[in-house]
Amino acid sequence: MATLDILHFPDPRLRNKAKPVTQVDDRVRRLIDDMFETMYQAPGIGLAAIQVNTSLRVVTIDISEEKDQPLALVNPEILERDGVEEMSEGCLSVPGIYEKVKRADHIRFRALDRNGEPFEQEAEGLLAVCVQHEIDHLDGKLFVDHLSSLKRQRIRKKLEKEARQAAPAPAGTVI
Ligand code: ZN
After folding, report:
1. pLDDT 10s digits, 102-147
2. Distance 93 CA to ligand 1 centre (A)
3. Distance 27 CA to ligand 1 centre (A)
4. Active-site residue 134, yes or no?
5. Using CA atoms, how far apart are residues 133 and 64, in angstroms rounded to an integer?
6. Which of 122, 134, 160, 162 is catalytic?
């Protein structure tokens, strides 16, 4: 297993639409394993393949305290949405930013598991929010897109400034 680099907003690659997985093979299973390792180390409760620069519809989630309930979703699709929930969300691609986002608080979704077997599941609360957040990623959407454009601009400027400061300073002229 290996940890993967996570892209940060406003990287344009986060705007790609991920392609459906045609076959859940060892390559996809290795991606899932690497995504779990990356997500647990970050640490985060959800990760979409788009965030590690892989344009496939693959998501990893684990909302458990003990980090022992890994949920891998391949080609996930929401079948039903119900109710409204407003939760403070963060994202590994938008580090250090937390904002309230309104989403459905009860969903039913289907996906393939790591063996390529289809399954359906209901989710509410945090898991429902997490699945919706990750599926947004697969469609090139970020949680900041649910905020006002003014707020989004502010976040963008803040992260761009932080990225510049993190970059190594140019070497001085040696005379
Ligand atoms: Zn995210």
Report:
1. 999 999 999 999 999 999 999 999 999 999 999 999 999 999 999 9
2. 6
3. 23
4. yes
5. 17
6. 134
